[in-house]
Design a protein that fits this description.
The complex is a heterodimer of chains A (289) and B (289). With 289 residues, chain A is mostly helical. Chain A has twelve helices and no strands. Chain B contains twelve helices and no strands. In chain B, helix 3 crosses helix 12, helix 4 packs across helix 11 (244-254) and helix 10 (203-237) runs parallel beside helix 11. Chain B is globular. The longest helix of chain B is centred in the N-terminal third of the chain and has 35 residues, at 68-102. Residues 1-8 of chain B have low confidence and may be disordered. Chain B has 289 residues and is an all-alpha fold. Classes of the chains: A mainly alpha (289), B mainly alpha (289). At the A-B interface, helix 2, helix 3, helix 4, helix 7 and helix 8 of A face helix 2, helix 3, helix 4, helix 6 and helix 7 of B.
């Protein structure tokens, strides 16, 4: 009997502290209040939405039909779709190269902390240099990431003129920041044991990178790059808004000029491309990992 | 293992290698074609005109416009952005949760819950299968059309202002949330479900006590991530006249007032950072259970 009791006491000390009961309730209340506040601020008129909304939407949707399927417009659409696809592919490639070039400086366990450095009392200057490289790379990635693609696109349109190329640059730069963060997480989570084993053989730091870290990280890098491709195909369509070519530009024109039948064709094209890229990327990722 | 491979499979390995080369050659060709189609021209970044434009842009952006009247004027759009993102995410959950539940294969027609009714009437299985397929198709249509296109169409349907932005985020993110929720539900541990079923629990009870407690932390985590995306998306929404900070960015861009634009981007930066911090805290609480 006493044994049982002591084991209960043990269990009690092992079980982590229960979160307070009020937390979920308080969260729920906070969410309700926030949603109410947001609804007031955004002038949501629910009765109006439910009374007139469905009619307006259905009549709008009705006007979209039938899609414009004239051969010359289909050809236009196909070209726009290909351009969007090309922008997304080039943007993802640029982002991957950019992230790959920067991420090694931005990962703590390669620059100054962890197994690779525990045996070394770095001099102040050398350590400071390492740390400043690390902080600089990290800051760069943060900056690239937080500025949205669309803002980057306007900057690049301003610099190199209209056309798909500024779209490529915008996608590449923004997603370079995103991929840099994701790649960095991969690098910080690699298995340490191969690294320690390599270090024990006297491998240099560069050799450890090539033989210990990269083989573990590369498949994940590729998987993330493919995932961003899925995101980029949607973003590439959007960049047309600021004059960066592709389907987005055609959609912009079709909506502005009330060309509803053409709009439907373009929407279908986006649907097909996005779905196809989703499937292709999922398939390739399964091949890799 | 290796022995068997080397004994039987040289031709197989040869053909596999050829396949690899074919694959990489194909990828290379795709890259080349994309580069042409997207008019990639790195040198144009370096020519004098582009350099001058970059310089004009960045020199024009410093220092940011921090005059009190501009900052005071920005309070409303900033709050509006927050409100759009909150209400949009709430609507997305309201759309995504029911559709996601309907679109979960383990709830609809296969897995533990249905293991005992292999021979149930085909009509009944058809009735189960139909909502599953329908909700999946709906979700994929919602998420394949980018949010800016939704915003465009809602601006047409309900007029300018923050409300179309809310609806656009609600629909587009509803599609994504529904898909991810159903993936989370399909990945829950089936053992508690079996245990519940063995006690004679109804389907609803199994959903409430078996599925949801396991899925809830991931639900919260993904929803918070979407909220962060919604804040970022507001930069795009504004371009098509759907309110918030994005609209101010669009106006400043139109007027080539880069000082103001810089301030706006910094505010957006701060908002995203704050949301990131807040959701990290909430995530930690939710997963600590």
């Amino acid at each position: 009997m006493p044994r049982v009791q002591s084991s209960i006491a043990d269990a009690r000390s092992v079980v982590p502290r229960q979160p307070r009961r009020w937390f979920p309730l308080a969260m729920a209340a906070a969410v309700v209040i926030l949603v109410w506040w947001s609804a007031r601020g955004t002038e949501v008129d629910l009765p109006l939405l439910f009374r007139d909304g469905p009619d307006a939407m259905f009549s709008y949707a009705g006007r979209l039909f039938p899609p414009d399927l004239r051969p010359e417009f289909l050809l236009d659409t196909a070209f726009g779709g290909l351009e969007t696809l090309a922008i997304s592919i080039m943007g993802s490639l640029l982002a991957t190269l950019l992230a790959f070039g920067v991420v090694f400086f931005a990962s703590a366990n390669l620059m100054y902390a962890g197994v690779l450095f525990e045996r070394e009392a770095a001099g102040r200057i050398r350590g400071g240099l390492r740390l400043s490289f690390y902080l600089g790379a990290k800051g760069l990635l943060n900056l690239l990431r937080t500025i949205p693609e669309i803002v980057w696109a306007t900057v690049f349109v301003f610099a190199v003129g209209l056309g798909p190329f500024p779209g490529v640059l915008a996608l590449g730069v923004h997603n370079g920041g995103v991929l840099g963060k994701l790649f960095g997480e991969v690098l910080e989570n690699v298995d340490r044991r191969p690294i320690e084993a390599l270090q024990a053989t006297g491998a240099s730091r560069f050799q450890i990178l090539i033989y210990g870290i990269l083989p573990q990280a590369l498949p994940h890098f590729l998987a993330y790059a493919l995932y961003r491709w899925e995101v980029n195909i949607r973003a590439a369509a959007m960049l047309g808004l600021v004059g960066a070519g592709g389907l987005g530009q055609q959609i912009h024109i079709a909506i502005s000029l009330f060309l509803e039948h053409q709009l439907l064709t373009l929407l279908l094209a986006i649907y097909v491309i996005v779905t196809a890229v989703d499937y292709l990327s999922a398939y390739l990722r399964r091949l890799i990992i | 293992m290796t022995h068997r491979l080397s004994a039987t499979a040289p031709s197989f390995r040869e053909s596999k290698r050829a396949l690899h080369w074919l694959f990489f050659g194909g990828v290379f060709l795709v890259f080349l074609g994309s580069a042409r189609l997207a008019q990639v021209d790195p040198w144009s970044l370096l020519d004098a005109r582009a350099r001058a434009n970059f310089l004009r842009f960045f020199a024009g952006a410093f220092p940011p416009d921090l005059s009190t009247e501009f900052l005071r004027f920005l309070i409303k759009p900033t709050l509006e952005t927050i409100q759009i993102s909150i209400l949009g995410t709430a609507i997305a959950v309201a759309i995504g949760l029911p559709l996601g539940l309907l679109g979960t294969a383990t709830l609809a027609y296969r897995g533990v819950l249905h293991a005992r009714e292999v021979f149930s009437a085909p009509a009944r299985r058809g009735i189960r299968f139909l909502p599953y397929v329908a909700s999946r198709a709906l979700l994929s249509a919602f998420r394949s059309i980018p949010e800016f296109v939704w915003a465009f169409m809602f601006v047409r349907a309900v007029g300018l202002g923050p409300f179309p932005g809310v609806l656009a985020i609600g629909i587009a993110y509803g599609g994504m949330i529904g898909k991810v929720y159903s993936e989370i539900l399909e990945a829950v541990d089936p053992q508690p479900l079996e245990a519940l079923q063995a006690t004679g629990a109804s389907r609803w009870q199994i959903l409430a006590y078996g599925f949801l407690p396991q899925a809830y932390p991931s639900f919260v985590s993904y929803t918070l991530y979407r909220w962060e995306c919604a804040i970022r998306a507001s930069a795009v929404m504004g371009l098509v006249g759907a309110g918030g900070l994005g609209q101010q960015i669009e106006i400043s861009m139109r007027m080539f007032d880069f000082h103001q634009m810089f301030t706006l981007v910094v505010i957006l930066f701060g908002l995203v950072g704050a949301v990131d911090w807040l959701s990290a805290r909430i995530r930690r609480r939710v997963f600590a259970r």
